[in-house]
């Protein structure tokens, strides 16, 4: 009786509160009230009358997630732990073990221990599989198992992990972890400076500015800004970084929304460090959001030459909205547009194909825009580089190999069977690559091409129309030819795969800092950038 009375009092109150605190909902007043009333009465009846015990929290969590998944992947509900994780990502500081960790079904996988932080000091390596934290089995822990590794500075945590089939234990002393936005800055040669910016947290523009000043003091007459793999972060930091290279008062990005107050234009507000120094920005498919604002605006303002492959295309703007009990909802409120008017967003989540996948704009439907100097640039999602490097864009087979962690796992095995290589001269040999191919074969690696999918569809249609008997011979020949092409695909992508393997292996021995040092002498994009910067006429030809 108490539960029924509570529902009768609270549910109408919730409807009333929702409707009269949001001006934007006035036009849908009746429909919103109706749908909330249907949902709340359904939720009450399920919890009161279902044959088995239900967990209201789990039911609501499922309902919220299913409602939001029809919008876009960035509009998400955040519980208390998610809110804290977001804070950490923005500030760059947290207390924990100092490692990048991937949560799997029954274990925590160490992806990358940070140099000289607790996990590294305790001996943990990339590829280690944590199966138990204190007395808690990861496989039976229902919440986010990564949270088990967090704790107060100075506190100790015992972990049990598996390495190369052997179970080990270690004790980690937690500490404050400060995540740098700039993982490395150095001189590539006596005239060219290099800055690797991996995050857009609150330290990003300050660290980039300091790096730029030091490199100029060391004699840098040109700069390479590396945004590859940078997933973005704070908009304000992106604007400040653009401001390092362009004058005060320049348009950087515009946001457009159906809600008037979210329509904004953002200009540079500070005095720059250097508006003339030749600048090249490196991007790839992992460069998203704030990385695309920086690269896109510098391209539109003809302030930098962009090198690499088309960026990710994340042009949707989110804003967290506080809810009750320390939770939040992060809502997509608008879209980003570069100074020329290009929309950065690549995928249209509001128009989907028959399989429910978001639609990508076709190249023939791209729209043309003009940079400050009148150069043609196009939308279609993401930033298209001025100089495209084929190796920057993973092929179909490379994507399949990476998504199945074959490069990561091979690098783990390589680390435990080879001595430390020379950082400046390391190259994977032909015999090493043959070993990698054998590794793929032993793990029964296979991947499905779009052609193969279409061929299977053809078979289904032919069977329906009773034509398969007559087509079976041709079908078998096509299938055989396709398999032969797939078998050759690894060799045809040898250069790209070798580069990815070398990078992952170098990171195992020399951490992320060592990887960026390795880039300075071995990376194709950096070599291309240095070549362009060494010829000022060639550099200017891309901008005029």
Topology diagram in text:
Blueprint: H1 2-20, H2 29-49, H3 56-68, E1 76-78, H4 80-91, E2 93-96, E3 99-103, E4 108-113, H5 118-121, E5 129-133, E6 136-137, E7 156-163, E8 166-173, E9 175-178, E10 182-187, E11 192-197, H6 204-217, E12 222-226, H7 235-243, E13 251-256, E14 264-267, E15 279-283, H8 290-300, E16 305-308, E17 316-322, E18 328-337, E19 347-352, E20 358-360, E21 368-370, E22 376-378, E23 387-388, H9 396-403, H10 406-415, H11 430-442, H12 450-464, H13 468-492, H14 494-522, H15 524-533, H16 536-543
Parallel strand pairs: 11-12, 12-15, 15-16, 16-23
Antiparallel strand pairs: 1-18, 2-9, 3-4, 4-5, 5-6, 5-7, 7-8, 10-11, 13-14, 13-18, 17-18, 19-20, 21-22
Structure description:
The protein is an alpha+beta fold and 544 residues long. It folds into five domains: 2-54; 93-178, PDZ domain (Pdz3 Domain); 182-392, 2-enoyl-CoA Hydratase, Chain A, domain 1; 396-445 and 493-524, no CATH class; 450-491. It has 16 helices and 23 strands. A hairpin with a 7-residue loop joins strand 13 and strand 14. Helix 1 (2-20) runs antiparallel to helix 2 (29-49), helix 6 (204-217) packs parallel to helix 7 and helix 10 packs across helix 14 (494-522). It is globular and about 75 Å long. Residues 1-13 have low confidence and may be disordered.
């Amino acid at each position: 009786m108490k539960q029924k009375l509570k529902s009768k009092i609270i549910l109408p109150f919730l409807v009333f509160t929702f409707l009269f605190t949001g001006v934007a909902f006035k036009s849908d007043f009746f429909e919103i009230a109706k749908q909330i009333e249907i949902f709340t009465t359904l939720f009450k009846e399920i919890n009161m009358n279902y044959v088995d015990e239900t967990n209201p929290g789990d039911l609501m969590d499922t309902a919220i997630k299913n409602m939001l998944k029809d919008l876009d992947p960035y509009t998400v509900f955040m519980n208390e732990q998610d809110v804290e994780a977001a804070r950490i990502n923005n500030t760059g500081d947290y207390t924990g073990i100092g490692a990048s960790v991937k949560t799997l079904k029954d274990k925590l996988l160490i992806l990358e221990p940070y140099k000289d932080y607790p996990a590294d000091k305790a001996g943990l390596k990339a590829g280690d599989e944590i199966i138990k934290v204190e007395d808690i089995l990861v496989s039976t822990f229902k919440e986010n198992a990564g949270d088990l590794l967090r704790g107060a500075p100075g506190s100790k945590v015992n972990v049990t992990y598996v390495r190369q089939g052997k179970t080990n234990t270690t004790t980690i002393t937690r500490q404050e972890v400060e995540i740098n936005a700039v993982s490395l800055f150095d001189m590539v040669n006596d005239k060219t400076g290099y800055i690797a910016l991996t995050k857009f947290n609150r330290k990003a523009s300050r660290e980039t500015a300091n790096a730029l000043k030091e490199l100029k003091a060391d004699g840098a007459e040109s700069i390479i800004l590396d945004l590859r793999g940078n997933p973005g972060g704070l908009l304000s930091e992106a604007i400040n970084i653009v401001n390092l290279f362009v004058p005060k008062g320049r348009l950087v990005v515009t946001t457009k929304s159906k809600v008037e107050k979210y329509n904004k234009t953002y200009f540079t507000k500070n005095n720059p460090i250097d508006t003339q120094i030749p600048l090249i920005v490196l991007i790839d498919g992992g460069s998203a959001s704030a990385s695309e604002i920086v690269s896109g605006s510098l391209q539109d303002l003809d302030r930098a030459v962009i090198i690499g492959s088309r960026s990710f295309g994340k042009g949707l703007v989110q804003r967290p909205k506080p809810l009750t009990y320390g939770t939040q909802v992060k809502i997509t409120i608008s879209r980003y547009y570069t100074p020329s008017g290009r929309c950065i967003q690549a995928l249209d989540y509001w128009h989907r194909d028959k399989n429910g996948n978001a639609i990508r704009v076709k190249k023939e439907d791209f729209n043309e825009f003009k940079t400050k100097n009148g150069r043609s640039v196009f939308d279609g999602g993401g930033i298209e580089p001025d100089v495209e490097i084929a190796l920057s864009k993973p092929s179909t087979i490379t994507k399949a190999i990476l998504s199945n962690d074959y490069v990561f796992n091979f690098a783990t095995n390589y680390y435990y069977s080879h001595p430390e290589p020379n950082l400046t001269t390391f190259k994977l040999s032909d015999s090493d690559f043959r070993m990698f191919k054998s590794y793929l074969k032993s793990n029964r690696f296979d991947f499905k091409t779009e052609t193969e999918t279409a061929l299977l569809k053809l078979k289904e249609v032919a069977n329906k129309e009773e034509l398969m008997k007559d087509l079976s011979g041709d079908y078998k020949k096509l299938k055989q030819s396709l398999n032969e092409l797939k078998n050759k695909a690894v060799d045809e992508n040898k250069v790209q795969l070798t580069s990815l393997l070398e990078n992952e292996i170098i990171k195992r021995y020399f951490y992320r800092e060592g990887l960026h040092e390795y880039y300075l002498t071995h990376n194709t994009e950096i070599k291309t950038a240095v070549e362009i910067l060494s010829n000022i006429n060639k550099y200017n030809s891309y901008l005029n």
